User: Fold these one by one.
Assistant:
Number 1:
Amino acid sequence: MDLRVRLGKLELRNPIILASGILGLSGSQLRRVGEYGFGGLTTKSYTIEARRGYDTPILAYVKCGLLNAVGLENPGYRELARVRESLKDVGIPIIVSIAGSKVDEFTTIASYVDELGFNAIELNLSCPHVEGMGLELGDDPNYVYKIVSGVSSIVSIPVYVKIGLHRDIMATVGKSLDGGAEGITAINTIRALAIDVYARKPVLSNVYGGLSGPAIHPIAVRIVYDIYREYGIPIIGVGGVSSWDDVIEFILAGASAVGVGTVIASKGLDVVREILDGIKTYMMDEGFKELSELIGYANK
Amino acid sequence: MDLRVRLGKLELRNPIILASGILGLSGSQLRRVGEYGFGGLTTKSYTIEARRGYDTPILAYVKCGLLNAVGLENPGYRELARVRESLKDVGIPIIVSIAGSKVDEFTTIASYVDELGFNAIELNLSCPHVEGMGLELGDDPNYVYKIVSGVSSIVSIPVYVKIGLHRDIMATVGKSLDGGAEGITAINTIRALAIDVYARKPVLSNVYGGLSGPAIHPIAVRIVYDIYREYGIPIIGVGGVSSWDDVIEFILAGASAVGVGTVIASKGLDVVREILDGIKTYMMDEGFKELSELIGYANK
Amino acid sequence: MYLTGYDISILRFTWGVIEDILNHSKSIKSFNIRVREPRDLDPGQFIMLWIPGLEEVPLSPSYYDGSLMRITVMKRGPTTEAIHRLRIGDRVFYRGPFGNGFKVSNKGRYLLVGGGYGASPIIYTAHKIREYGYEAMYVEGVKTESDALFIDEAKSLGLDTILVTEDGSSGIKGLVTDYIEEVINEYDYLLGCGPEGMLLKLLELCNRYGVECQLSFEAIVKCGVGICGSCELYNTGLLVCRDGPVFDSRILSRYLGGV
Amino acid sequence: MYLTGYDISILRFTWGVIEDILNHSKSIKSFNIRVREPRDLDPGQFIMLWIPGLEEVPLSPSYYDGSLMRITVMKRGPTTEAIHRLRIGDRVFYRGPFGNGFKVSNKGRYLLVGGGYGASPIIYTAHKIREYGYEAMYVEGVKTESDALFIDEAKSLGLDTILVTEDGSSGIKGLVTDYIEEVINEYDYLLGCGPEGMLLKLLELCNRYGVECQLSFEAIVKCGVGICGSCELYNTGLLVCRDGPVFDSRILSRYLGGV
Ligand SMILES: Cc1cc2nc3c(=O)[nH]c(=O)nc-3n(C[C@H](O)[C@H](O)[C@H](O)COP(=O)(O)OP(=O)(O)OC[C@H]3O[C@@H](n4cnc5c(N)ncnc54)[C@H](O)[C@@H]3O)c2cc1C
Ligand SMILES: Cc1cc2nc3c(=O)[nH]c(=O)nc-3n(C[C@H](O)[C@H](O)[C@H](O)COP(=O)(O)OP(=O)(O)OC[C@H]3O[C@@H](n4cnc5c(N)ncnc54)[C@H](O)[C@@H]3O)c2cc1C
Ligand SMILES: Cc1cc2nc3c(=O)[nH]c(=O)nc-3n(C[C@H](O)[C@H](O)[C@H](O)COP(=O)(O)O)c2cc1C
Ligand SMILES: Cc1cc2nc3c(=O)[nH]c(=O)nc-3n(C[C@H](O)[C@H](O)[C@H](O)COP(=O)(O)O)c2cc1C
Ligand code: FES
Ligand code: FES
């Protein structure tokens, strides 16, 4: 059973990637997470300056997932040198997520990331709860082009653009590719709100948060399917994976790799092995030798 | 305990409304549904010509809800005369949902609905799985204005616009109000896709469907909250209600009435009483005498 | 009673593999399907059988023991024709079970009446009734001898078994409902499935002779869970997929009036 | 062991009503809260207490019996100050329990060590240990006599109880860790909660004397379920909210090295 997949220029030992924002705040966290069997890791989104993030509550429980409004907490991009250092021998590709509001913020961080020898860059243009550095960037295809081409022209490693529910998703994707992105990460959380009926107030200190977990999975699958069908490019499918079948569904829709996030809150990091075991059983039962045969299969 | 709410010009004995598309294909269905205690009923969306709808499968199971692609099946608007006839003495407001692709289709049906003496009109500008008569109408604020003002200018009953995840939701709402809508119904299902991992094909014959059920609830609450905050108008909150607390959450966010759909597939029509009982207990425990005090409370 | 709680996960497709195919007649075949997932399925409940790429269709299994499911299918249109082309080893997808089946928990004498492929849920019910050890007669009505489906199976269950053929080529000649009228008085309960005309006639007989009946009706089933409204029984507001497909005389009389 | 399954519904807020308030000292109060929903909560696990409009803060209850929950809170910043302003009858929101508590399922002699408000989970643990009937000594370290929290309660549980005050105003004078060093040899297990310096010293002592320990650490807790990464213990990759807050000597020695 061969679980290896090619994600553009990267070769992954398996398709399961830690999604950005989950335990990716420090090198020591990522190091530890790496021991659980992931095929690749994405860091938290880094910005130029350190960010405290929002006051608590930053998480809200909803019936089919979570809302979060962490507020892009991170220690600032210069910390990435230390992150790199402690991940020297981790042996799996590390993707650095970058957030910002201006083109030069993205390029400054990106060139630093490239120099440090990380394996890929993910441009987070889709955070639904931070004004000025989130969703609205990705909503504007021309600005997307500026950011992506700015970054792509100065780095040697692959660039992925992380998208959300933008006004015109296909335009955002198209401009990302025009700008030199190798592929797309889809999707980020979806803007949402939860009110506690006894407190009679929004739960999150930021009022709005991003919905993740099983709730968004069918929407994410739709978007991956659409992008694959239109562009046939490398895609990291993210959104609501809670077990192996969701991963297979993403791959059948056209994802070459699959990010997991929220499920870690419930099942813990052991979920990676559970997922990989499920995939192996499936491939055995269904007679597939190479997982990569399945990429985009449902589009046939 | 007073569960009555005002929804614009309508007075409802309670805020629970049957959402459009659920058992609203015939007068006899609506009649029967009416016996379960709803505060109001919405018909299936009617079009000028009868529509067969899509081939089966029209429903797909997903972990947190359902996808449907019914394809606006309906017997054509002329049947509404018979619907009206059999609902003569049903005693609760009936809202007729209208779908179409051109302004004159909406106006033709709307004036017929008005003549027949129904209580309100809901313009479905947000079906996510029927090309040319769905989401894209609501995506275009100028066209929204044309449709809504066309209808509003010729009918005497209140007009609601049913919206979905449009490109610019606030613009769609704004233009609806400019066009004379009394309020907004939010939200319709969200475009999504499910692939069966063993069939390795999309489940729905139409490939794409609309996601409903608990999955979409926090997104719907966000939209209701935003609209209430910006415009303070009558809103029918719809999306993912599975128990009484979801209804209260919608009301706290700003909804004056709340639609229920998918939950009927699991809990059956008896869910109405379960919800009303839950609301009463809540009001008692929390010391509220009139449900209407709670409308928009979380915005304070 | 109606439209009460349901576990929506029955809407998840599962599948089985065809293990055996029986050709009853040129238009009716049975398929023995080894199922992947045991799901409780009462006699009279139905599944939606799906051939990916085509439609899904409602079928009431003619046998089920948790591991083996038999469906008996009449060729009628594109999907049932495609089902007839399936071969041993093929995978079939289905979901369910949906709806309410026949209730056979009361002790008493049962009259089981199947017309054409409508005999499917009836023969499955016959198996249950024998498990409970109740008295029953199995009556199958068909056009001609070669259309007979489960006569031997019913006999092997030890039931009084009667075949009624319209052309008299075997068994009793005539309409099954005429035969029923002769014997109905000896029974407490009548369970029936078959063409609409037969069902309405059975209902009339049961009302006339004061026999409780349960009848399985057909309609266009699309969602299976009582939300799309496409399976309404006449203009009653009753839903075949959820309130039925098996309805009892009390409900039918209330909603259909005096027939 | 680590980051394993969790029921995410602990993230749903529930609430209770303040029934009683105890003023221990000018900066520490206890609140007896009648809870609306019984949720299992082991000694050493923590809740996130939320005052709508303000932040939520992690607290390890000092008593819990499924219906009554006591929290013991030191005034430190805006949220704990607001908690101190709460009155009888006020509603408090909380979610949890989160993390791993003290494990007291092994028979043996327990040395319980609480420093300041860190005595909260320790006194709750003392209740459990008495239920099990194990031998234990309760040691509380504070600055001065008036800061003492649960001395009488520990005594009333029938435990050997020692108060250590830095200024010698009552009980034994000195640092609690110095006292512990004198007696540690007589115990199989040490359970501790308190300021970081105390915890690290206890770890060193336990390692030196070969006593198994479980220590409860603090960090900035934001999500509580091990995804945001804000509660990392030093640079170990360990998460206070999920791998902790109580860590045992085996894990601490492995990750913190020789201290
Ligand atoms: C509860 C129930 C149980 C059934 N059990 C059996 C069974 O055990 N064996 C069997 O052979 N048949 C059974 N049927 C009938 C079977 O579902 C139809 O023959 C089949 O759907 C026809 O599909 P088709 O594509 O082959 O033909 P089509 O060309 O689609 O239709 C042929 C005829 O079947 C009717 N029909 C079409 N679609 C449906 C639908 N979704 N639901 C109901 N009727 C439909 C049409 O009105 C038409 O008269 C059952 C029907 C119901 C409602
Ligand atoms: C597992 C755990 C159990 C605890 N149990 C208790 C208890 O039983 N009683 C008690 O009085 N205190 C307890 N604390 C400490 C308590 O959570 C902090 O004192 C409180 O969060 C301070 O909040 P504030 O707004 O009042 O002060 P702030 O102004 O926010 O902070 C004051 C100090 O508290 C620290 N702090 C701030 N926020 C947090 C946070 N979210 N998590 C941890 N530390 C923080 C800061 O580093 C700062 O030094 C516990 C902490 C943890 C992690
Ligand atoms: C707590 C939390 C923090 C997140 N932070 C980030 C982030 O910093 N950058 C980013 O691109 N996505 C972030 N995300 C989004 C995830 O990477 C992912 O796209 C989303 O959660 C959907 O996947 P899931 O359903 O598997 O969680 C965050 C998600 C969560 C739950
Ligand atoms: C089977 C089905 C059919 C629907 N048909 C319509 C329709 O015809 N017109 C419409 O405006 N909305 C339609 N909807 C959307 C619902 O009215 C509602 O907006 C949506 O399902 C979200 O609510 P819920 O989560 O309570 O189901 C349909 C939904 C379902 C599940
Ligand atoms: S088939 Fe949809 S309601 Fe019965
Ligand atoms: S508080 Fe978020 S990981 Fe511990």
Number 2:
Amino acid sequence: MDVQLTVEEETMTAFLSGEIDHHGAGEIRRKIDEMAQRVRPQKMILDFGGVTFMDSSGIGLVMGRYRLLQSFGGALCLRHVSSPLKKVMRLAGLDRIAQIEDTRPGEKQEGKRS
Amino acid sequence: MDVQLTVEEETMTAFLSGEIDHHGAGEIRRKIDEMAQRVRPQKMILDFGGVTFMDSSGIGLVMGRYRLLQSFGGALCLRHVSSPLKKVMRLAGLDRIAQIEDTRPGEKQEGKRS
Amino acid sequence: MKAINEMKLTVPSRSANEGFARAAVAAFIAPLDPTIGELADIKTAVSEAVTNCIVHAYRDGIGVIYIQAKILEQGRVVIRVRDTGCGIEDVKKAMEPLFTTCENGERAGLGFAVMESFMDKLRVSSRPGRGTTVTMEKTILSKGA
Amino acid sequence: MKAINEMKLTVPSRSANEGFARAAVAAFIAPLDPTIGELADIKTAVSEAVTNCIVHAYRDGIGVIYIQAKILEQGRVVIRVRDTGCGIEDVKKAMEPLFTTCENGERAGLGFAVMESFMDKLRVSSRPGRGTTVTMEKTILSKGA
Ligand SMILES: Nc1ncnc2c1ncn2[C@@H]1O[C@H](COP(=O)(O)OP(=O)(O)O)[C@@H](O)[C@H]1O
Ligand SMILES: Nc1ncnc2c1ncn2[C@@H]1O[C@H](COP(=O)(O)OP(=O)(O)O)[C@@H](O)[C@H]1O
């Protein structure tokens, strides 16, 4: 797994790729936080477009970034979340703390779970 | 692994796909031989374009078909053989009993081993 | 019930083996031709169970993780992940969603919740100081059905 | 030499496990980032060794195949495939290219030749009636090098 970071005005985007598990999550966290603490973005987008697998370590990753952003008043947005990833995220109620923006190209937009 | 068979005039073509190993080779052999014994083609093309793996069971497959074709005077031709497959075939000297026609699209044509 | 196929896999509790374990289980059940969703469910559940061995059971060192998978009739898959690590004092409590003994705030306490909701059955047995065994079951629905 | 990582895998000698065994070994060595050629070499060698257990060692029934893989320093991969089947009377002769005891003409007698030429090292030890152990080694060259 890997992460590419960009910052544009007040928005920081982390393009995640590969398999997100406990093995790789620590490194990703460090990279994101190091940058986020420097730029203190108003908005952080976690882009899951290149992510092929995610377990609950990914939930820890999202929750931790959510808390960090809250600490300086930023908002978290999750983008390009495939169906299997969405299933993991919903279990944790991540759809309640962060905006899940859209689906991967070619995938049907699903309604929110009632 | 799977095989699709076509016959056009004197030529029979077997489009092989998937992984060729001992597990799947028996079924492929039966399918090819059943057809070959009926049509007795002048030429048989084994097309490896869809083959992602092959071990020495594939050599047995080629040698057996070579002997069958010999028995009624036909020629054997191997097509779309990727580099890793060619490595296995060369070990067995298959390039001496059958014509290896061309490589997969996008792959460099290799010279014959001297 | 007689297994159609089975495998036993042992690996040391290094985090690199999280990915290996789920890839191996995925390769093992491939002949059942699972859907992408079924495959993701099983890989995720295996990843949770194996990660727990690494993060919790053997938190102070490297131990051995025993993984067993069986394919039974009608697409039933049974997966067992066993460790001989620290064990769990109160299994019922450990299985509650959001419960975690991890203090750095990066574990969500949802490992068991994922296993429970992504698999058809989950059974956890543990003895403090002796280790933990997680047994999970899921039926891969035949695509023809 | 201390292993950086290792795995032990046991499967029954069903032919469906030829594909599983090589996929598992491939997943295990994936962190070494092998080239397509290196990966194909190792998968092919594993496939030969496992097929021999199925076709020869346990020709009259189903037995257990023991596969062990280790990653050592500097990309060295050691793979051992062991059976407790019929064993080989004359290992030297068995290893000669084109030698086969298979009578239906569909085995090429090249299993050992493939293992020998696709891997850096091959060692075969066998006791008639007790079983056979094949140990193979190959170094995955670092792409940076
Ligand atoms: N194999 C295990 N060995 C010891 N303790 C475990 C094991 N698996 C789980 N636990 C305990 O159960 C708790 C809950 O586990 P889980 O639901 O997977 O959440 P998490 O891994 O995020 O903490 C863990 O925090 C740990 O205390
Ligand atoms: N694991 C084994 N147990 C018993 N006999 C074996 C084993 N592996 C190989 N052999 C013997 O060695 C011979 C040569 O093996 P090999 O080179 O792999 O060719 P093939 O499998 O095509 O016969 C086999 O025909 C068999 O007699």
Number 3:
Amino acid sequence: MALDKNGIAKRIAQELQDGYYVNLGIGIPTLVANYIPEGVDVILQSENGLLGIGPFPDKGKADADLINAGKQTVTAIPGAAFFDSATSFAMIRGGHVDLTVLGAFEITDKGDISSWKIPGKMVKGMGGAMDLVASAKNIIVATTHTDRAGNSKLLKECTLPLTGVQCVKKVVTDLAVIDITENGFKLIERAPGVSVEEIVAKTEGRLIVEGEIPEMNI
Amino acid sequence: MALDKNGIAKRIAQELQDGYYVNLGIGIPTLVANYIPEGVDVILQSENGLLGIGPFPDKGKADADLINAGKQTVTAIPGAAFFDSATSFAMIRGGHVDLTVLGAFEITDKGDISSWKIPGKMVKGMGGAMDLVASAKNIIVATTHTDRAGNSKLLKECTLPLTGVQCVKKVVTDLAVIDITENGFKLIERAPGVSVEEIVAKTEGRLIVEGEIPEMNI
Amino acid sequence: MNKIVNNAKEAIAGITNNMTLMLGGFGLCGIPENSITALVESDVTGLTCISNNAGVDDFGLGLLLQKHQIKKMISSYVGENKEFERQLLSGELEVELNPQGTLAERIRAGGAGIPAFYVPAGYGTEVAEGKETREYNGKMHLLEHSLVADFAIVKAWKGDAYGNLVYRETANNFNNMMASAGKITIAEVEEIVPVGTLNPNEVHTPGIFVQRVFKGENLEKRIEFVTEKQ
Amino acid sequence: MNKIVNNAKEAIAGITNNMTLMLGGFGLCGIPENSITALVESDVTGLTCISNNAGVDDFGLGLLLQKHQIKKMISSYVGENKEFERQLLSGELEVELNPQGTLAERIRAGGAGIPAFYVPAGYGTEVAEGKETREYNGKMHLLEHSLVADFAIVKAWKGDAYGNLVYRETANNFNNMMASAGKITIAEVEEIVPVGTLNPNEVHTPGIFVQRVFKGENLEKRIEFVTEKQ
């Protein structure tokens, strides 16, 4: 059965390693924070100037000066630090963030990503997404495998304006965990009860399937 | 009579305007701080990371963490700020410092300056001098008019390695106040009792002398 | 040295039509509220505004958009604003979108006297159109240019008469860099403190970058998305 | 997350011959004393040291020079050191002198992922030799490149187990930028404080830049020129 948003987040959380500094994008990526494995100590970076995002504030305790990159009120953990946007992107551009998780409209088998603009329809801007994908050492995309109309989001070429080229390393969808290799997408795991055939059918880009594909353990 | 170091500093202090941020180099320029005119409020910048240099500390109060760019122990005025070297040179390079006063080995009638290296003899390095001369809005050089051997330091061309080109705006020496114009040095004032003839004789670069040259009022 | 002025109206004196302004803030967090209100009341028009975001329809820069005072925006994210989207799609408003880190660095560079620098963000995308590219460390980079403004308007938590500023939490964001990149920088602060009371080790923006300081009155500090524990 | 190690010897583990190091400090102010002693004791050699200054003959980097552990210095001012001058004039030591602001910015750029940038400092001088030039705003600029190091060794006042650092007065200088530009950054601190005690608004170097923290023991904090009121 296809995973829901929380299932995708839970699987991505397994990629976290102790000591990681992690930037979580808006949407499904934000949910990853709810599933950080026991014993794994990670610090969350928010590109608007916070290292050490804490949980949402208690009722009535929201602070207008303390928000995340999605403009939601948050808290700061003990040991947090605040800084300006130039310093924040020095962290990102300088490769100091260990893992970036973000959403996407489309991903290609070369690791290209489209995530910020639907011409004539949505003109919100790229925010920090282009900086993140251009500089992160390790980028995981969290997305549904297909769009609402059932079209694959894992393509040969992006049809929408690009956010970055050849940067995504791994995709976790509601159906599968897929690595991006020199030879295209490579199926690593499938969602519980989802068949390899379904994944193949719903992946438009080149997809390598080698040997037995295990189910995710979530 | 030729001015001594303090005289030169005193004359330069007359160039300070209320509200100026000023960077004073090592040597004679440092002495300028002792002659800031009454009612003129200036803030001194030190390129090692201090805005608001105060007087030398009281006896026994020297603090190893609080030095100026000449590595002398200083104090910080109320309202001072400390910062790192990148921020310090952002102030300098970004044109936020109103006036820079520094010493020189040689100056040309085009505003070129040599101040940091005597080949085969002195290899201390340029420190912040090249950054300062390349970016200051207003640079005054404090120097003796001639070297110890009596050779002019106000030249057509520098003989020593350059610190910067076409940057010096004014020179205050033990003999004269000289502006640097498109047509070369221009004599503005002479030290009390010093003749125009002496200044002309001791200036190798092009020197414009127009009309009556007043004595400095110090 | 006293940089304190009485109010927002005095602070924005000299801002005239067709000038370029920088305005601090991320979303509605850390925006100079009183200054924006004064700009709305001033009827100044034809502005180029450099600001990470464009406010919401009825708050922040949205107020200037509604009165058509802005000719061009240089931003990274302009969602959450229907009037903005309408003016953009109709061609009334010119918009230059920058990757957020590139925008932040262009502003820092403007304040720091660095006219241009290379970054990897945007290579291979429409952001790269018309830009010089160069390979460094096996990766393609774009040459980006600095930004400066006629006036930078920032919001700080505390400020003194010398212009020293301290920000609170994530309300720093673009304010610190912008303070350095205005020919004239205006700081709207929540509290004016006597000179000498800010710890010099803890000043975020040294006063050399700031020309005018005033106390913001009746700050709303609106929250865009109040999110609390369930 | 605990980045605290026991002492300087543990902190410098992994520094091997011919590596590039950054060492914080301006003159003798804000230098990592224990770390330098540990390097002297380690007998590591062939080092390239990026440091604004080179210490004095018997303190700071002068100690590494005396033992000929340094192959090359990248600095802005190296006066006050006779052994340095001797090695330089004899050709034993390679020296690259940078304008101080350019050096500071090259280090910041290294930490911030900016491979190259333009500055006016040094145009028309021997510093410009072999460098690309370009005119911006009617003024010639040089293209300068970023610096990174295998290890950056900085000195801070307070630090915590997450690597957050606070500097004191002018002992910040090059330390803050260098902390961001080391593949591994070691912070020698005067005081280790419990996580959560540093005010997050007042952290100078956020912990993400720092990999190891240790408490410097018996710091001499030597003053180069004690100057007092007459």
